[in-house]
Amino acid sequence: MARSKELVPGVGRFSRSQVAAKRGLYKGLKKSEKPAVEPTPETVEKTIGGNNNGEKRIVPTSKAPRFYSAEDVRQPKKSRKTAKPSQLRSSITPGTVLILLAGRFRGKRVVFLKQLESGLLLVSGPYKVNGVPLRRVNQAYVIATSTKVELESIKLSDELNDAYFAKPSSKGAKSAEEEFFEEGKPKEKEAFPASKAALQKEVDSTLITAIKKTENLVKYLRSTWGLSKGQYPHQMAF
Amino acid sequence: MSDSTFKRFVEVGRVVLLKSGPYAGKIAVVAEIIDHNRAIIDGPTTSVPRQSFPYKHLTLTPLALTKLPRGSRSGTIKKHLEKEGTLTKWNNSEWAKKRAAVEKRRSLNDFARFSVMLEKKKRRDGVRKAVKALKA
């Protein structure tokens, strides 16, 4: 029923003849050449033990169901909904200074670099300026300011994608004994991978040179954002 | 009127500041008084069209056109306004300047607000140092 979308389960939009017309059946049925499949025989002869069982019996290959439902089972409606790819807010362009509103770095002002495949925004503090590393954020938890950093020349490596930020798959389960004795001990700190640190530095160096072109912008990024008395975000310009 | 403490009156020629509506923040001139609630105002130099306006939504300014005849039309009002230089008088008044400054501060973006904060800090620091130098 590809052409005839289902109105309700089991009922198509078009009649049989309309579908036939749409399919172009007047041209004749399509001839497809499928590889010949050997039909499985419906019955199999099996040898049966026991003296009074006649030695052999013809048995169906697939058993008939023992249970038939008394009523027709309703076909569930197929959902044709698909998730829309998220759209970037028009006020956010590469180089826009964003204010983070949620998470560990809430209140920090960061620079937007690009939108990732998943729709999340790739931002950097830069790390050297305000301690915010290369990070993914949801644009819903962000205020876009009208301040922009000139990022014409920046080239982001292809490494920076969603996979870059994925958690490393956990190594094989530890033995129960090891786990038992480990309890109470502080967890071993894993060193930050050198490759990621290098990438952060590389991105930041170009960023910082661009930021330094504007007076006070470094100070601005270093400071945190907040509301004081009599300030209402919906009345303020960002 | 010498025994009255009132200085600003609702009168023909009085320059008024509009407090609400699409022309809020602009000035206009009273051309005619309709009743104790409304007047006909007109602001040909401030692009306020001639209309009736309730006193409730306007503020009287100290400025007034001295020789405006009652019920003048836009052309006459414009002539009088230009002759007396009322718009420049208004723009040079402390009131108008303060309003402009408030408006300007309100329209600043986040980075500009931050820059203002830095400038204010600098000014405070300068004052503090100057006072200290004088005391010593």
Report on this structure.
- Chain B: One of its GO terms (biological process) is ribosomal large subunit biogenesis.
- Chain B: One of its GO terms (cellular component) is cytosolic large ribosomal subunit.
- The complex is a heterodimer of chains A (238) and B (136).
- Chain A has a domain at 96-165 and 195-225: SH3 type barrels (Roll), CATH 2.30.30.30.
- Helix content of chain A is 20%, strand content 17%.
- Chain A has helices at 16-23, 127-130, 162-165, 176-182, 194-211, 217-222, and strands at residues 6-8, 11-12, 43-47, 56-60, 96-100, 109-115, 121-124, 135-137, 142-148.
- In chain A, strands 8-7-6-5-9 form a five-stranded antiparallel beta sheet. In chain A, strands 1-2 form a two-stranded antiparallel sheet. A two-stranded antiparallel ribbon of chain A has the order 3-4.
- In chain A, a hairpin with a 5-residue loop joins strand 6 and strand 7.
- The mean pLDDT of chain A is 86.
- Chain B is α+β, with helices and mostly antiparallel strands and 136 residues long.
- Chain B folds into two domains: 1-84, SH3 type barrels; 100-135.
- Chain B has four helices and five strands.
- Chain B has a five-stranded antiparallel beta sheet, with helices on one face.
- Chains A and B meet through strand 9 and helix 6 of A and helix 4 of B.
